[in-house]
Write the structure tokens for this entry.
Amino acid sequence: MGRYSTGAITTGEAQRIEISFLLKQGFISKGGIISGSLSWNNGSSIGIQSETTEGKQEIRLYYQNQKPTGEINDLDYRIQLSSIPSNLGRGLIWYFICPISGRKARILYKCYGSLYFKSRKAYQGRIYYSCQIASKNNLHNERYFSLEKEIGKLKPLIRKKQYQGKETRLQERIRKLEAEKEYHDYLRWNNLPKSIQKILGR
């Protein structure tokens, strides 16, 4: 039996809204009301308005959705936001509250014919991570580069590697990620045919 069904969608293929992107692009700013739009490479676009004033933390999404039958639906709804203090002591960590499941999520997806953006776990059809449907030869490559990217984002956040003689939690996380990266680096080369390993000097 295969690991996934025909027509499976990956997180990279689904239309998605990431809280980190909204923050980076200034779509969410504490104490303000901000309006704008988002667009994707497939030509889809939506209107977005965020409000994080006293007593209200939400984003409003409005757009048209066209079904394969040609029917067009006008959507206009709000998604609640939640924020908690960062354990690094640097501002807030923001989350969406999924409008379907009520769970916290950093990313909302729209796929499998859904009219709404919702969390990955709110779908009956599974949304796979690309590494879950990758072949054995590609899985370790994808995980290696994913870890390399994550480590690259974390390293600039380091202020101290140790505090009161103990390794900081951030440094410990980076160390463990680097060990995992080394593990996948070994396996991604070990899975290559011996003839190719010889050419590459492995």
Summary: Helices lie at 19-24, 136-154, 169-190, 194-199.
